Amino acid sequence: MLVIMRHGASDEQIQTVISFIKKKGFDTHVSHGELHTVIGAVGGKVIDPRDIELLDGVKEVIKITSSYKLASRIFQPQDTVIEVNGVKFGGEYCGVIAGPCTIESLEQMEETAKQLSQKGVKILRGGAFKPRTSPYAFQGLGEEGLKIIRDVADKYGMAVTSEVMEISQIPMFMKYVDILQVGARNMQNFNLLRELGYINKPVIIKRGLSATFEELLMAAEYVMSGGNRQIILCERGIRTFEKTTRNTLDLCAIPVIKKLSHLPIIIDPSHGTGLRDKVAPMSRAAVAAGCDGLIIEVHYDPDTALCDGAQSLYPDQFGELYSDLKKIAPIVGKKIDNEQTVEV
Ligand code: PEP
Ligand code: MN
């Protein structure tokens, strides 16, 4: 249930409504919009909306029928904008994250980060704990990998995103990483999602291989219900009957999520297609469709990559794509990487 306060409702009136709802056993979440303050009431049992409507300063009470509430556009009409290292995701901003699939060595991260930062990239990706289909495949360098990506990112003034696989790793990730990533295979690891609700760093939630948009938004709701509102949703391709590409990149995610939710939606064209030559066209399409960001795999030497080389761009290919995206974005009213001046 959402309580929309009148324009200009006083703090005291807002507090009275919050205490009333809390006394009925609900949790409250407040969103201060440009025009109205909205109070979301979640988790309680019964409450008669008329009792709230009668309180001073209340404009109306809306019952939300969707299963997600805090993630919904009704709770917060204005776009959530998340800023990391000067890069913004959401609203008029489209942020770019790039880097290798996996952290392999100091040299590999150093060379890749150097080339990306020269092109203007401000957020570096790289997995230290890899969710591999085969237990015999390279599983990542673990904490050692996180140390490497942190050191290299610091050297080039970059922020770091990396995938967290389980609750016990969260404190370690808080030390090294600026954005915690929940992988597609963990999108419905509800215990992990719940714990990420208690941290104060942004979380990227990747859409599960066969997850509906509603399920993706429910994953965000898990994190948000713990108090963490800094959620970035990510479409990374779903499993379909098509075999030509690794996954089917569902760009409908952009208009659909934007209508249902205020949260930023970014696109991963690398896992979404699985093939290097498909990454640039799908990135351009995603920006044209109004995505709030991109996460792209780039390796300084993809032919030697330990993981996902075939879908990783060469740095020069990335550079060309990056400048194309900057031309496309303004057509749909967006800015790539906050329009920092960049030599490409
Ligand atoms: C990744 O981004 O490193 C990754 C493993 O992606 P996904 O969870 O989407 O497969
Ligand atoms: Mn990968």
Q: What series of H and E elements makes up the topology?
A: EHEEHEEEEHEHEHEHEHEHEHHEHE
Count the helices. How many? Answer: 11
Radius of gyration: 21 Å
Q: How much helical structure, as a percent, in the residues? A: 25-40%
Report the uncertain regions: none
Number of domains: 2
CATH superfamily of the largest domain: Aldolase class I
User: Which CATH class of the largest domain is shown?
Assistant: Alpha Beta
Could you say which small molecules are bound to this protein? phosphoenolpyruvate, manganese (II) ion
Question: What's the total count of β strands?
Answer: 15
Class by SSE composition = alpha/beta
Mean pLDDT: 95
Largest sheet: 8 strands, parallel, barrel
Distance separating the two termini: 49 Å
CATH architecture of the largest domain: Alpha-Beta Barrel
**What overall geometry do the principal axes of the alpha carbons give?**
elongated
Q: How much of the sequence is in beta strands?
A: 15-25%
Strand order of the largest sheet: 7-8-9-10-11-12-13-14
